[in-house]
Amino acid sequence: MLWPLTAHDNRCLYGVIDGFFALIHPMMQPPLKARFLPAGDTALVVEFGDTAERALNDRVLALADAITAVGIDGVVEMVPTFRSLMIHYDPSRIGAQALARAVSPLIGKAGASSRHGRLWRLPAVYGGEFGPDLPEVAERTGFSEEAVVQLHTGVDYHVYTLGFLPGYPYMGDGPEELALPRRETPRIRVPMGSVCIAFRQAGVYSLESPGGWHLLGRTPVRLFDPRRENAVLLAPGDKVRFEPIAADAFRQLEARAASGELEVKPAEVSA
Amino acid sequence: MRPVLQVVQPGLSTTIQDLGRIGSQRLGIPVSGALDATALRGANVLVGNPQGTGALEMAVLGPQLLVEADSVRVALAGGAGRLVVESEDGRRREVPALTSVRAVRGDTIKIGAVAGSAVAYLAVEGGFDIAPFLGSVSTYVRGGFGGLDGRALAAGDALPLRLGEVEARGEVQLRNLDLAPAVTVRVVLGPQDDYFTADAIEAFLSSEYVLTRDADRMGLRFEGALLAHSKGYNIVSDGIAPGSIQVPGSGQPIVLLADRQTTGGYPKIATVISIDLPALGRLTPGAKVRFEGVTIDVAQAARREFEAMMAGLPGRLEAVRPDGPDLDRLYDSNLISGVTDASAACPGA
Description:
The complex is a heterodimer. Chain A is an alpha+beta fold. Chain A has helices at residues 12-24, 54-70, 96-109, 134-141, 145-153, 247-258, and strands at 35-38, 43-47, 75-80, 84-89, 118-126, 157-162, 169-172, 187-190, 194-198, 201-204, 209-211, 214-218, 239-244, 267-268. Helix content of chain A is 27%, strand content 25%. Chain A is globular and about 55 Å long. Helix content of chain B is 16%, strand content 28%. Chains A and B meet through strand 2, strand 3 and strand 4 of A and strand 13, strand 16, strand 19, strand 20 and helix 4 of B.
């Protein structure tokens, strides 16, 4: 029997799904191995792996798109993360087994994400009071401050997932040359708009918050603004490119952002 | 003049909450909403609202509100509290929790200490006239949005009401709505129970945990048997469910509640089942709980039963009997003696 999910061990949930794939592909390894993990009685995790890799993230986003396209009754919302999709559902409308059964065939079908992302050009002022960690990052990586800025602005970042703060983007993959672990002592207050890095990830603090990443600069663009119709600017799958500006330009743009007049539009790009 | 409740005293941490901001977690926006959803729903039923209508959530000390509307109907739910309606002429009516009451212009609605639960709710008939943000009026103070300007109430605030007057009708009460704080908390293991040793799982499910002072709308930090990780305590961040129990390097469990982040990077040993969350939201520091493992099927069957019970709440409203505890007489005797003695006011009960 495929779905003996009334068993008393909830681990059956994903054990059985591994079996499901084995039945579809008796002669080969399942091409898209995924685990179903229970997160209580109102959320189900579909996990593709335990690392932060583009290939995994593409599958996560593709599965989210596929579920949205099919429409599964009882699915309340989905949260794509680096390497897994959390499906929040209403257990009064669909049970864990039925949900897993509805999602399984979509995992098999979902290849790489076919999402057409948007490219956002975010102006950012680097160094000085805006990027207090730029000198230290330069020193520790052996580059000049200018070269660090060039490296950081020379990459189109992929938005893996949003989390930590409303509208905070976890982005990658930054240049290997700038990969540093998080600061040993996190800051209590990081200003809104701070452009930051840790390991090969990049972020932008969408609100003032505590934080332990290295601060390279600041963008006047508000990634989260509850006054705006699209309160959150970025979405998973989007691309972000930072473009250096001078302090004066930053102050002008920031004043416009404060009064809600700074409008930023993305360009459409293929994924 | 638009109808409002004028905030005379804001209380210690009073915010507007409904059943949460569903549908924006993929944008990093927390769900928020009532810590004790059952009490919120009960309060709304008492004033004839849909159960998810936004109401005032209060902690520790409730507010004092001046009625600047022709009339308003309110009900308090949660804890062992009661509210007092003071009229301009000095008349004072005490109304127990889970009982509706109508107040008129010039009355002051006073709610004192929140006792017997961490939170209590005041619902108003018709609800507050507040624009929802992303589909919800729940306040998320850390992000500065939702509710009244994204913050807790302050003295001088005016809470706009949808209704300027409410009909004078018999008041109602709800009995047997269980609003007790949690003692046993049922959990489903996972999603990262494989990050813990077998001993840790055993200890987690068999020993007592005490709620520390680190308890707020975001989560509850417990103290008890240490939970050893079997393969480190850093994972690549993934989604967080309501009631996720994450265990950071300290080895002590943190249960994540309404204002939880949407994603997180600590292993989650288990998840509190949805119908046990409201009782967890009622806990105050020092409370002792035990975690008990159940299957998803058990949790979902219990949830369906619970929702059926909640759907039937309006049918369980009872009239506040004129010949039962005579509230007016109760208030009058109260004015004289300052002591509420229900048995004296209701001989033979």
